[in-house]
Amino acid sequence: MKTLSAALLSLVVAAGTISASGPVAVYAIVDKVIFEPNETAPQRIQIWGAFSVAAQPYSTNYSSAQKGYLYYTLERSSEQATRATWVDLKKVAGTGEAVGFGGGFSTSGAGARVRKSAEKPDSPDAFPVGNPVVRLASSHPDIVANLRKALEAK
């Protein structure tokens, strides 16, 4: 049975698209990622690009797509999962690929504020622990179009 499970997991990972379990906290096209204080032991992260964020916990309502950056702090209760998600966000940065991440059922991180590029990083939001980075591929075409439009806006 373990062999079958491992084989199925390999197929899902090889396919490149994994479905989220429950609503995601953030839809995004990530331009760049900045780890603070460093990439080896990050405590905070700046995620730059275009975003549509869950309005509140347990909601499937999202903000309009906005260009800017998200600023998060590491959640101590889930350091390993959070850092793994941050590494995956770094991998998609600059590719133009639309993704979703974070748990929409999380009481922390929902309703994160998209900050304007001129705003100094201060008072990071709690990272919305939950779903890993999921590729939107051909799903959610309206969200992807709105993210692209926001990203191209000046």
SSE topology:
Blueprint: H1 2-15, E1 24-36, E2 44-53, E3 66-73, H2 79-92, E4 98-103, E5 125-126, E6 134-135, H3 141-152
Parallel strand pairs: 3-5
Antiparallel strand pairs: 1-2, 1-4, 2-3, 4-6
Task: Describe this entry's structure for a reader.
The chain is an alpha+beta fold and 154 residues long. It has 3 helices and 6 strands, in the order H-E-E-E-H-E-E-E-H. Residues 1-20 have low confidence and may be disordered.
Q: Main beta sheet: strand number and arrangement? A: 6 strands, mixed
Euclidean distance between termini CA atoms = 53 Å
Mean pLDDT: 83
Low-pLDDT segments, ≥5 res? 1-20
Radius of gyration: 15 Å
Helix content: 25-40%
Keywords:
154 residues, six-stranded mixed sheet, single chain, alpha+beta
